[in-house]
Design a protein that fits this description.
The chain is an alpha+beta fold and about 200 residues long. The chain folds into 2 domains: about 60 residues; about 130 residues, Beta Polymerase, domain 2 (2-Layer Sandwich). The chain has 8 helices and 6 strands. Strand 3 and strand 4 form a beta hairpin. The longest helix is centred in the N-terminal third of the chain and has 18 residues. It starts with a helix and ends with a helix.
């Protein structure tokens, strides 16, 4: 597969990520099918770094007048829940952390605690309704995810906040940067520092 096709898949996937709020993996596969590459092997698909570069380009071209305010609103929701759940060492991850989110994205927080039920009890104590689901972590092991709805006054709608429950020992590895030297997540102090740097 030529680099041109790789770039076409990345650009098409980026449009799906921004316009439909898709995650990178499904967006890449759908983009490959749309371009007649339905048999493309996973190893031949563009990497997430390339997708993210294309997402940033798309946002700059087509969403520059709306995306910054939408991102700020999503980060405000993240801050609210990071403060409310501070005892579980919350870290923001995903598009809201990386700065590429729009109103179509959900907020992804990772909670680090020894007792996975403690977070559920905390939500119950706060009178917060939640749904329970699960995802597989990088090691293929199931991780509990608590999903809640949080109203954004700025956006005038309810935003889904996903709380992934991870063990406290996972926190050390979680803070390692990716291959490009970028952090994949950050705690409340790191988020505030990031926002201050971006607004400077």
């Amino acid at each position: 597969m030529t680099s041109t096709i790789t770039e076409e898949i990345a650009a098409t996937a980026a449009r799906l990520v921004v316009e439909e709020g898709m995650e990178y993996g499904p967006a890449k596969r759908r983009a490959a099918r749309a371009l007649g590459r339905s048999s493309t092997r996973a190893a031949e698909l563009p990497g997430n770094d390339l997708i993210e570069d294309e997402v940033r380009n798309y946002l700059a071209l087509f969403c520059a007048d709306t995306q910054p305010a939408e991102l700020a609103a999503l980060r405000a929701i993240a801050i609210t829940w990071m403060e409310r759940l501070a005892e579980f060492r919350p870290h923001l991850t995903g598009a809201v952390w990386r700065g590429t989110a729009t109103r179509l994205n959900n907020v992804h927080l990772q909670l680090f605690c020894d007792d996975s039920k403690a977070a559920e009890l905390a939500l119950i104590d706060k009178g917060v309704d939640y749904d329970v689901g699960s995802i597989d972590n990088a090691r293929g092991q199931p991780v509990d995810v608590l999903s809640i709805a949080s109203t954004s006054r700025e956006l005038g709608e309810r935003i889904t906040v996903h709380l992934s429950i991870l063990g406290y020992d996972d926190l050390r590895g979680a803070l390692k940067p990716d291959a490009g030297g970028r952090s994949q997540r950050g705690d409340l102090a790191a988020l505030r520092k990031l926002m201050a740097a971006e607004s400077a």
